[in-house]
Structure formats: structure tokens, C-alpha cells
Amino acid sequence: MRKSIAWAVARMMVAIGLFACGGGGGGSNSGPAPANFTALTGTMNTGRAGHTATLLPNGIILIAGGAANDNSNVSFTSAELYDPATNTWSATGSMATARAWHTAILLANGKVLVAGGIDNDNSISSCELYDPAAGAWSATGPLNTGRNGAADMVLLSNGRILIAGGHGGVAPNYTLTSAELYDPVAGIWTATGSMSTMRRNNTMTLLQNGMVLVTGGTIKYTTTVHASSELYNPTTGSWSATGPMTSPRMIHTATLLPNGTVLVAAGSSTTSFNSLTTAELYNPVTGIWTATGSMTTTGAGGSAILLPNGNVLVAGGWNGTSALSNAELYSPLTAAWSNAGTMTTGRIHADAIQLSNGNILIMAGIYNMNGDPLTSAELYTP
Q1: Alpha carbons 188 and 190: distance in angstroms, whole number
Q2: For the chain, how big is the Rg over CA atoms in Å?
Q3: Domain spanning 28-380 has what CATH number?
Q4: Four-residue CA torsion sign, 272, 276, 212, 142
Q5: CA distance 309 to 321
Q6: Model's pTM, two decimal places?
Q7: What is the pLDDT of residue 140?
Q8: Mean pLDDT over all residues of the chain?
Q9: Can you give the residue ranges of every domain in the chain?
Q10: Predicted confidence (pLDDT) per residue in 43-76, tens digit
């Protein structure tokens, strides 16, 4: 199954005293469902699972790669663009290498770096750059280790890009501890310190102090799900243990809150994909996790995004039998969840991106456990 997607768009529109949201208590508040979701008529040209979605500086969204479904071993080279102003999708230049379950990140120069992935059951080391001005891709330095299913890359304060974990090598693609750094100026990857634990389906979050927090995950071909967390120090290039989560989790969400804490929510505590509704907060000063209010319905594979008002929207996921259309809001002020309405379509691993007007675009994802992808999109109005 696809890795958890946690795109935290950190816009600090509210000033909350550090750790004011605290932990514990705060149960869920269902309330009447607001009608905040609107279906869009424009649909993707190609149904994709395991693709990437990146917001470009011009407000257009780049979709790259993927596969015909979650279980396919044949990947795509194609890419397409979504224009929110016209609600239309259009093809753009194709990558040189077919890839799914890769990672993508916007660089400071406006280009998009795509790294790794898998095709025909083989992990990929090649990387490519997308130039929005030319609508074309070009090669850049390859990873030292081919990897797929790694958590989203992180842009460090020194301008370098961190990637860690995932699977490496040819089938059966063993889970990795290794990490690498990309230099956008030189266009090359160099090895950096390795994590102490092999991880896939984990999360990776850049903290306000410049450290990177990695949480949970699992090891392929085992029943192990981690509660452990690690911190990457860009200054020393090394990892260190920090407090474990209160519950093992994989395919969960992780969102950096405006007060500097990290909200981790939902996911699964077993490799047989049970559905968690619990949530917890990480305090980067003490390195300790504390429980916070639990959700009502959202489970594994939901999509989380920070809203301009400081609340966190979590939408969709899987309850163990079907794709969910439910959405909930977490308030750091009350440490509680409330009903955010219902999506027009149940989605697992959907892409959630904040547009320039403050609305949230929720698109694609899969709608069943066969991994069949959706091409539809909808808007959430905060």
C-alpha cells in the first residue's frame, strides 16, 4: 500500500503559546456536518497510484509517474498539470524513466526534483528535474542506493534535501536504514548517517529547530510496526533516538503545528491494516509524546494538511473494509476533533494541497483495497 502522505503547509496564521495545546483529554466532537466539499468536473487524464503531486510557484500542480493501480509492477513515465484557475488537466513532458512510489520536492529554484521509485519490481536510483518554464525533464545525479516507498523528502535549512529509508535493490526490495543528501547546486547525492531502524510507511517532519523527526513505520515482509522515533541533526549528519510514540503506527499522518509540536494521527498498528483513531503530540523540547483527543472515524491512509487558521484537516482513509469519505478537524486550542463534512468520494492516500486562495484541493487516491485509482478531485473550503 502506498506510503502515508503528510503534506504540512505550515502557515502560521495564529500565535499559540509554545505547547499550549498540551496533551491528553479533549475527546471528539461530531456535531452537524458542514457542507465544505465541492466536486470538481475536471479529471486527471490518467488514473495513477503511487504518483507524486507538487505545487509549483505559479500555482499549478504537477502530477508525475505512478502505476495503473496500487498492485501494478509496471509504472508510468507520463506527467500532467492541473490549473486551478480553469479546473483543467493537461499533459506535460514525460520523464525519461518510468517510476511509481517515488518522492518529489520543490527546489528553491522552482524546479521539481523526483527521486527513486520502482518499476517492474526493481528499485530505481535515477533522479530527474522538472522545469516548469520548459515543461520538460532533465537528468540529475542518481541516488547512491535505489529506493522506493521512502517518506517524503525534506528541504533542510542548509538548502540540501534529505531522503531516508524505503526499500532498496532488486526484488524483494529490503527495507533500508540508509539516508542521503542532495546538493541542488552540484546536482549530486552523498551518503549521510543511517537511521538505527529500518522503516517504510513512516513519516518525516522538519521541526522548527531544523532537526528532522522520523516516526513509526514498518519493515517489509515482517509483522513489525514501530512506535520508535528518531531525530536527524543536519549539523552533525547523525541520527539519535527520541521518545517513542504511545502507540505503534504506520501509514499515519504527521503535521507540524504552529506552536512547534507535531501532531501524529490515525494509521495502523498492525501490518494487517487495522484502523487507529487515536492521535498524539510530540514535544521537541522534552522529546516526549502525549495522547490528545481521538478522532471518530478516520483511519489508515488519510490525508492531513495544516489550515491557515492553525487547525488540521484529516480526510479519508481506510476503516479496515472500505475507503472513507469522512473528514475531521483537529483544534490545537481545544485538543479535540470536530466533524469537517463528507467528501464526495471515499479516498485512501489522496493528495491534499493548499491553493493560493486558501482552499484545499483533494484529488486522486485509491478507492478500494485492490488499489484502483481515482481520477477525480474536489475542493474543501475552510
Answers
A1: 7
A2: 19
A3: 2.120.10.80
A4: positive
A5: 33
A6: 0.90
A7: 98
A8: 89
A9: 28-380
A10: 999 999 999 999 999 999 999 999 998 888 789 9
